[in-house]
Design brief:
Elements lengths: L1 E7 L4 E7 L2 E2 L4 E3 L4 H9 L7 E6 L4 H13 L4 E3 L7 E2 L2 E2 L10 H12 L5 E6 L2 E7 L5 E8 L1 H11 L26 H28 L4 E5 L3 H7 L5 E2 L3 H8 L2
Parallel strand pairs: 1-5, 5-6, 9-12, 12-13
Antiparallel strand pairs: 1-2, 2-3, 2-4, 7-8, 9-10, 10-11
Length: 253
């Protein structure tokens, strides 16, 4: 069965095709405002899928737009995936007291890590928010935390000190971990270094805490738009899986 998978985030939307539990086409992405146009152009070159499965971290108008577009062009079912209230799904036992409060993207990232045989793991999703979830070797979620992402940190700082310059944390921009010293010599570089290195240091400390709690070395698995920059600044070894949430969607039965 071919499934169109859609991951609707705060600032980016990603989509791809899966056959069974495997991604079988290149992952596409766009900003929300351009999503329907981009997906329509992409969909013109594929056969209609058997179904559509999507996850969204927010209540977004794109969800209803997807439903309408799919009904008009393909007439196949659209399933919005949510965190299971039972606390168990995709082979993962959710550790929250109220499982439905855990973001579906966090749950699916853990499902994706399990599908890749990466447990026990510290699963870090570095997007608009940075989430950190600890999952043991038996796929039991041990809990997690949420912290501000790099752009959110900058936005908060500039809200109270608006004279500070804006910083672009995206890979390939002028600043990077490789060409920006930790102790910077200009304000823009200092903001970049402070955001990336402080975040990386916090995550390194959390990984150490996780290893101590589990009494074993957890794999550090990063995903999300800022994963590359943050991983480069972390001291602990890590792997980057940019499509982990989509892989979790594909792994659901």
């Amino acid at each position: 069965m071919n499934t169109l998978l859609i991951d609707i985030g705060n600032s980016r939307i990603k989509w791809t095709l899966a056959s069974g539990d495997k991604l079988v086409s290149d992952v596409q992405s766009s900003e929300p405002a351009q999503f329907l146009q981009a997906m329509s152009a992409w969909a013109g070159g594929i056969r209609a899928p058997d179904r559509v499965r999507l996850v969204s971290v927010i209540e977004h108008s794109v969800i209803s737009q997807v439903n309408d577009w799919v009904a008009e062009h393909w007439g196949v079912p659209v399933q919005r995936v949510r965190t299971p209230n039972s606390g168990h799904g995709g082979g993962v036992q959710i550790g929250y007291d109220r499982p439905e409060q855990l973001g579906a993207d966090r749950w699916l990232a853990m499902v994706g890590a399990r599908a890749r045989n990466l447990l026990p793991a510290c699963v870090i999703d570095a997007g608009s928010a940075i989430t950190f979830d600890l999952i043991n070797e038996n796929a039991q979620h041990q809990g997690g935390l949420i912290m501000a992402g790099l752009l959110a940190q900058q936005a908060g700082l500039r809200a109270i000190t608006p004279e500070l310059p804006a910083v672009d944390f995206r890979p390939g921009q002028s600043a990077s971990v490789e060409n920006t010293p930790v102790f910077a010599r200009n304000t823009r570089a200092a903001l970049y270094s402070g955001g990336v290195h402080a975040t990386a240091a916090a995550l390194d400390a959390l990984v150490c805490n996780a290893n101590n709690a589990q009494q074993m070395t957890c794999q550090v698995v990063l995903t999300g738009g800022d994963a590359v920059e943050i991983a480069a600044a972390m001291r602990c070894e890590s792997t980057i899986h940019p499509n982990l949430v989509l892989e979790g969607l594909a792994a659901l039965s």
